[in-house]
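[09:14] KT: can someone run the structure on this one? pasting the chain below
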Amino acid sequence: MLSIVIPTYNEKDNLPILVEKVFISLGSEPAEVVVVDDNSPDGTGAVAENLKKNYSIQVVHRSGKNGLASAVIEGFAAAKGDFLCVMDADMSHDARLLPKFLEALRQGADLAIGSRYVPGGGMSGWPKYREFGSRFAILLAKPITKVRDATSGFFCFKRPVLHNVPLDPLGFKIGLEIFVKGNIAKFQEVPYVFTDRQAGKSKLNNKEIINYLKHLLRLYKWKFRNASR
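[09:31] RB: done, structure tokens below
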């Protein structure tokens, strides 16, 4: 079974649309959505609970805004599937890629990543400064991972990828944490076009940029400490 973990904070307008798209895309594929809500003041948690009437959904309610990465880790703990997937609630990730991710995993990949930086991928409607920032962030991560879209937040993997893996992310980039530390012999990057959110407000701010840099430093230390053993 596939478990799709979706962390949420103030996504009441996007979540019902996304959940419908996910299950339409997967068709008869056994799947569940695990919504992890950080006590959204707009009522996202209640919207998620209501969706359980029509879809296979678990809802994890957290007491406060504790961050995307930790929300995803709680989602992994609650998930029932052998395949785990992460996607954002803001409609920037195309649910139609989920069957392609599953195909890649069933054909031998341990990890399948939605990638903006392989042929066929890209960004829609991004200003140049955001694209530059994204490319620069990926450049900084290049020495510690072979994944070309190292900051992607849209990916699926087999559960053993996390076996005995000490996840300790800081900020948004749980994917990077897994790409660097995970038990990954083979991965596949699947091209997609990132589309900016349709409703709600972006969570990216200066604090998250600083957290990314701190997270990178942690991962550099972890990578080279383990490489020397």
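[09:33] KT: thanks! The chain has one domain: 2-227.
[09:34] RB: yep, looked fine to me
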